[in-house]
Design a protein that fits this description.
The protein is mainly β. Helix content is 7%, strand content 25%.
Length: 383
């Protein structure tokens, strides 16, 4: 018998014979009562529906039973195994805290042992709309989510919630264009409730430096730190100094203990290479040291083929102060910048109700899908 039916049966035969707790039910015309509060309780467990259980022995109050402990225990066992209008069952939805998506917006999660699934179908909405983040004021630098919080009414018709059980879990129960003939559904229960979809967007330049360490002026505002003046703040700029050598390739050597103290400073001018637009201090801007291959990449211009005895590598001109050759024409463009985006999509369902179960709050989880990671290319101003 399902949880609600258990509670309904218990309530229907309850009588106030004890001031603190009285729990009554009929089973084969025999009245059973527990005055011990711990003998019957309802508890809420993490990310599950309601579980009802009996934890202590039932106290039997009947003037007709005075046969000793043996008949008392025998009666309890018979009652639990054969009572048809008060069966105590345990129902638990123990799913991982993540879900997936596919097709016309279906969010779903599955598990085995037992084989179950939860799914949400939302009409007239696609995942691209949920993680849409257009540029602000068309400046091509900063973006914002179109809608960070959406509230969806799950009415069982337009938008649906389903809890399913299977005799064996099919390989792809939700995302096949042609439904599998081996779904093996043993129970399909539709529910209603309110789904709240929350989206958070985190952006960074993936340059090897945590964003909080790119607050150069230390005022707590990452948007006003722009070393090269290209219009893109350092925490979103994968070439902080605008020398066309990506920051991640300038030996920032970030460590948790030392932070940026070990960042490479080739010319020892107290400005680390990743913030220095003339890394070798030869008077020629790094981005202009492209006398051989003017391709917006100074790292592949190597005039001196001598190998470093320790590393076995040659030194590019922009790190060799003895080489001052520059491009025949000054460089007038930056390499394309790339910003990494991570969208965190969470769903919480409130006032969830399906025939067997009810729960005030169900944490459906966090979306686990490649679509939640993306990149974009902010527009830079060359100077």
């Amino acid at each position: 018998m399902h949880y609600r039916n258990v509670i309904s049966s218990l309530r229907s035969c309850a009588q106030s014979l004890h001031p603190e707790w009285a729990l009554w039910r009929h089973c084969q015309n025999i009245l059973v009562c527990s005055s011990d509060f711990e003998s019957a309780k309802i508890e809420q467990i993490n990310n599950t529906f309601v579980r009802y259980k009996v934890s202590n022995a039932l106290f039997l109050f009947s003037k007709s039973i005075e046969m000793g402990k043996f008949f008392y225990l025998l009666f309890v066992l018979v009652m639990i195994s054969s009572c048809n209008d008060g069966d105590v069952i345990e129902v638990e939805l123990d799913f991982e805290n993540s879900f997936q998506t596919c097709g016309e917006l279906v969010f779903y999660k599955t598990k085995t042992g037992p084989d179950e699934s939860l799914s949400i179908f939302i009409n007239n909405l696609i995942i691209d709309e949920i993680i849409e983040a257009p540029y602000i004021n068309n400046d091509s630098v900063f973006v914002a989510l179109s809608d960070s919080i959406r509230t969806i009414n799950i009415d069982g018709n337009t938008n649906k919630f389903n809890y399913r059980t299977y005799s064996s879990m099919p390989s792809n129960p939700f995302c096949s264009d042609i439904p599998s003939s081996e779904l093996n559904i043993t129970n399909d229960s539709a529910g209603t409730g309110i789904a709240t979809i929350t989206v958070n967007l985190t952006e960074d330049d993936n340059d090897g430096i945590p964003s909080e360490f790119e607050d150069i002026n230390g005022n707590g505002d990452l948007t006003d730190d722009d070393t090269d003046g290209d219009g893109v703040p350092n925490y979103l700029d994968d070439d902080d100094d605008g020398d066309n050598v990506k920051t991640i390739n300038e030996s920032v050597s970030f460590e948790e203990e030392d932070n940026l103290l070990n960042a490479l400073d080739t010319d020892n001018d107290a400005i680390p290479n990743y913030l220095d637009n003339d890394d070798d201090g030869d008077g020629v801007p790094t981005r202009d040291e492209e006398s051989l291959l003017p391709d917006l990449n100074p790292a592949n211009d190597i005039t001196d083929p001598t190998e470093d005895p320790e590393t076995g590598q040659t030194t590019p001109d922009y790190l060799n102060s003895e080489i001052t050759a520059s491009a025949s024409n000054p460089i007038t463009a930056y390499r394309e910048h790339t910003v990494r985006q991570v969208f965190t999509v969470r769903i919480v369902i409130t006032n969830l109700s399906i025939p067997q179960l009810s729960q005030d709050v169900l944490n459906f989880g966090i979306l686990n899908d490649p679509i939640t990671t993306d990149t974009r290319n902010p527009k830079t101003i060359f100077n």
